[in-house]
Write a structure and sequence with these properties.
Blueprint: H1 14-17, H2 26-56, H3 71-74, H4 97-131, H5 134-155, E1 165-166, H6 179-202, E2 208-210, E3 215-217, H7 229-240, H8 244-257, E4 265-267, H9 268-286, H10 289-302, E5 316-318, E6 324-325, E7 335-336, H11 337-340, H12 344-354, H13 358-372, E8 383-384, E9 395-396, H14 403-415, H15 421-437, E10 439-441, E11 447-449, E12 451-453, E13 456-458, E14 460-462, H16 467-476, H17 484-503, E15 513-515, H18 537-549, H19 552-568, E16 570-571, E17 574-575, H20 594-607, E18 619-621, E19 627-629, E20 636-637
Antiparallel strand pairs: 1-20, 2-3, 4-5, 5-6, 7-8, 9-12, 10-11, 12-13, 14-15, 16-17, 18-19
The structure holds 1-deoxymannojirimycin (DMJ).
Active site: 270, 403, 512, 537
Subcellular location: Endomembrane system
Keywords: Calcium, Coiled coil, Disulfide bond, Glycosidase, Hydrolase, Membrane, Metal-binding, Signal-anchor, Transmembrane, Transmembrane helix
Amino acid sequence: MTTPALLPLSGRRIPTLSPGAASFPHHRATLRLSEKFILLLILSAFITLCFGAFFFLPDNSKHKRFDLGLEDVLIPHIEAPKGAKHPGGQVVIHGQGDHDEHRHREEEESLRDKIRADHERALQEAKEKLRKSRDELRAEIQTEKSKVLEDLKKEGPKPLPPVPMPKVVGVNDGDPGEPDIKEKRDKIREMMKHAWDSYRQYGWGHNELKPLAKKGHSTNIFGNSQMGATIVDALDSLYMMGLHDEFKDGQEWIEQNLDFSVNAEVSVFEVNIRFIGGLLAAYYLSGQEVFKVKAVQLAEKLLPAFNTPTGIPWAMVNLKSGVGRNWGWASAGSSILAEFGTLHMEFVHLTYLTGNPAYYQKVMHIRKLLAKMDRPNGLYPNYLNPRTGRWGQHHTSVGGLGDSFYEYLLKAWLMSDKTDTEARKTYDDAIEAIERHLIRKSNGGLTFIGEWKNGHLERKMGHLTCFAGGMFALGADGSPDDKAGHYLQLGAEIAHTCHESYDRTVLKLGPEAFKFDSGLEAVAVRQNEKYYILRPEVIETYWYMWRFTHDPKYRQWGWEAAQAIDKYCRVSGGFSGVKDVYSSNPTYDDVQQSFFLAETLKYLYLLFSSDDLMPLESWVFNTEAHPLPVLHLANLTLPGSQAQR
Ligand code: DMJ
């Protein structure tokens, strides 16, 4: 065997390797010969390096794959043939002790043999190549190129490993029993159908719909893509509501058209919560593989966003080039807390479904990094610079820019079947600081959550902040120092305040933001805060409060909101936001938001369903209302066994 180190370096042997050189003018032939020689040298050095690396690099298989706590739940259930490569790149190790050692040595030995053989073959091929003429080489390269392309076309996406399906319970029906409630539920279903049919007719394949102009619509969060955001966002609502033909239609569009190889700069957060969340939920509800495959394809496209000096992802990423950047408006080039802090649920499920630890590692890295940082007054500022790892402006809110970060801490704990106690503790500490600095009672007795700006409390609350009522109720059970009653009460108070913000308007729909200042209570002051864009947060809180208390007022409040939406937002081409909830003659914004189908109508439908539809012991809703199952080994059934539907 000729090893690369023993190859003669003398130029005299080169002519024997390149007979074709004779047909070229002398100076070109000389040039070609030296090029070949250099090529051969590089090749030899490379092979030597590979050999060296194989024998001298530390044996990674002896290290723990990742030391973050949930790996037992997420990884080992994936069965792979002995010594097979794990999709995440690690060799899966079975068994323990001596037996393992022995098998490990055998595996290593056979791997060495394979490398030796590969090396010899590569050397032989290199020699043969050097004997060929330029034209021959060109033709060969062309054939190889076409073959690779052909194979790629034939192959399609790589199959994912089989994983045990978590028990999926209560994904349809939910008949409430009482005829008047059933009637209300039917009305919500009819509204969903109107929203969907209109989009189907006028905006199909576009991200959203312009219900007055009756054409497609999109915003900068989706870049210039046309990825059918409404279809993906609506799927699980359609499924729960028993709109199966519509669901099938959506599925077909996804199978045939949803493609992520587009030159579009999208929001990592929005794509995660709407697309990955929506696809994963559709997968768990229906069991259709296509949704899982698409979710994973998309997730791979998001990963380059994490290539920053700190591992805190960019806000936006170009799906084609993988280049990331932050919003121009964000303080000091920062990433946003509610954006990089709202990936955990989906990424844990991605690791669970693919066996690739990268997703889990990325989000756990964010958590660890945040845990090490100083927090002014125990609060998390909304801005963090991904280059320097320093906070930007000290602005804390439970509404826009901060909201779902807190939500995902709580839901990480719930989704882990309450085993991720680190997440729970982080949530408890954060909420404790929020209560201390941000939550106040107005003169009129309304509890509100303000915003903290550089040491000053702004007595203003956003529609987005209203989700927190539901969050406090959801987190009540398991709160420290026996404060469950306190948090349920806090949830009820926030629900009441947010209801007031609806009730004090002309349209009985809530404004985008409302004040508690200078005698004003729960009303918007500035013109640009008076709009309602079909947002879900208030109804979301009604639903959680209903589930935990069964106080009929929550159904009553939800019904008031549903009627107002139907009366003031419904147009012949779908549903539109309105620009001023204090005007009896409002103008439309002409956008049917995808979250209207994903969240607002879903929470309303759940509010008028029985509790056995999507029970909260088994499902955790992501921030776009896409349900993901609780993950725990004890909760898993093996692949092939009949999942309960
Ligand atoms: C949704 O996309 C999500 O609920 C997100 O967390 C916040 N904003 C919208 C709805 O208002």
